[in-house]
Amino acid sequence: MARIVALSSLVARGHVGLRALTPALEAFGHEVIALPTVVLSNHAAYPHVARTLISPDVLDAMSLAVEANGWLGGVDGVITGYLPSAAHVSFAEALVRRIRATNPGALYVCDPVLGDEPKGLYIPDETARQIKQRLLPLADLATPNAFELSWLTERPVSALHEAKTAVQGLGTKMVLATSVPAVGDRLATLLHDAAGTVFTSVARRPKVPSGTGDLLAGLFTGALASGRDARPALAYAGARLEAVLGGTGLADDLNLAILFEPEPELTHLTVEVAT
């Protein structure tokens, strides 16, 4: 079991941000220390939303209390998601450095939550640039969606071969790029690391609830923290996500209870070499 700090948004209703990351990690038996950057009534896609930012000063006080209680020293990994301001980026950077001062081998996963198609960026441009300049160079793993990968690399990502070029140019040790358009009305997830670039693909669904990117990032991170190699982790995490989506059906929110049911016989996704 690993101890992982997760820094992202928290919703009262729904499964995005921490409400997707935490159960995904806990399904592997990992302990999660969850720090909310913003608290919302629900995901912003709904017509009515109430929200309040959690200031970096409050987050710092929370992390210091966690540290004083003796829990921060045993952290094995950090995953950052939604960061609403440049000040939150600064806090995230300082937190990663503080944890690595105690455990230099701590895994850092940067999920650069910047935006998506068709809306584009949904954080300030300066905040997005701070994530690119300050957090990605620290990361062992980055998990952008296709829009975010394109924005970060200033390259088109409208097809598999374009995404391959982009992930190779991101500059992070490992990249898991999601929602990449593939042939046959499919969506691909690309994995790039020192061993090369591979991908899995699934049939595009007409509609999926928000939070799938958070969930996949949590499942892949959880698999890595459990000792799986990257490619088996990709095949497994993708299969678990498909099982959740299958169990969610037409509902407007992910059914994560499936993660804690007796695990069915999963058909792991096929991992192919990207050409």
What order do the helices and strands come in, and which of them pair?
Blueprint: E1 3-11, H1 18-26, E2 31-40, E3 51-53, H2 56-68, E4 77-80, H3 86-102, E5 107-110, E6 115-116, E7 120-121, H4 125-135, E8 141-142, H5 146-153, H6 160-169, E9 174-182, E10 186-193, E11 196-203, H7 212-225, H8 230-248, E12 272-273
Parallel strand pairs: 1-2, 1-4, 4-5, 5-8, 8-9
Antiparallel strand pairs: 2-3, 6-7, 9-10, 10-11, 11-12
Please state the second-level CATH architecture. 3-Layer(aba) Sandwich
Oligomer: single chain
Question: What is the CATH class name?
Answer: Alpha Beta
Helix content: 25-40%
Taken from the alpha-carbon principal axes, the silhouette is: globular
pLDDT < 50 runs, ≥5 residues: none
SSE run: EHEEHEHEEEHEHHEEEHHE
CA radius of gyration:
17 Å
Integer count of domains: 1
As for the CATH topology, it is: UDP-N-acetylmuramoyl-L-alanine:D-glutamate ligase
Look at the helices and sheets and give the structural class: alpha/beta
End-to-end separation in angstroms reads: 36 Å
Strands, total number? 12
Tally the helices.
8
CATH superfamily (homologous) name: Ribokinase
* Largest sheet geometry: 10 strands, mixed
Strand content: 15-25%
Order of strands across the main sheet: 3-2-1-4-5-8-9-10-11-12
pLDDT averaged over residues:
96
